[in-house]
Amino acid sequence: MSLLNTIIPELNRSPFYQLRDQLSRLFEPSANRAPESFGDWLPALDAFEDKDKYVVSLELPGLKKEDISVTVQDGVLTVSGERKREQDVTTGNVHRTERYYGKFTRSVSLPPTAKSDKVAATYKDGVLHVELPKAEEAKPKSIEVKVS
Questions:
Q1: Most CB atoms closer than 10 Å: which of 65, 69, 79, 98?
Q2: Would you say residue 145 lies in a domain?
Q3: Could you read off the pLDDT of 9-23 as tens digits, one per residue?
Q4: How far is Cα 72 from Cα 123, in angstroms, rounded to an integer?
């Protein structure tokens, strides 16, 4: 809390302070946060592959399994869900809110070599891991070199 907020606490309640706070959060360098005024939030996502599979991981802290939906359709992996507020603040004054709530949807186009009929999803410690095996023809093959 800044010194100004300590000296003049009523500034925290004014609409101008709230607007300044939202604008400052808008320009904070953060790749996985979106200001509430722009609607839905986007959980951080990593996508990579190894020789056998494609993997997509999303940070979804505080969600339950029932709050998450994973679908694959027409070569697109979609993870969606909703994070609900733990407590609805209807009385008192909110001084700061930086955690984001609401619905989210993240979609990733899959390469044609992903076997979408064999998709597997696991959720542990707030991280969702989705794995799609590669088709045999997409896996690297070792070629024996013959000496003549």
A1: 79
A2: no
A3: 444 456 666 666 666
A4: 17
Does 1 share its domain with 24? yes
Tokens of 7: 């000296």
- Domain CATH code at residue 131: 2.60.40.790
CA diameter of the chain: 87
Higher model confidence: residue 82 or residue 2? 82
Query: d(Cα 90, Cα 124) in Å, to the nearest integer?
Result: 32
Q: Are residues 70 and 129 in the same domain?
A: yes
Same domain, yes or no: 67 and 26: no
Angstrom distance (rounded) from CA 123 to CA 43 = 14
124: tokens are 């542990």
Q: What are phi and psi of 72, to 5 degrees?
A: -130, 125
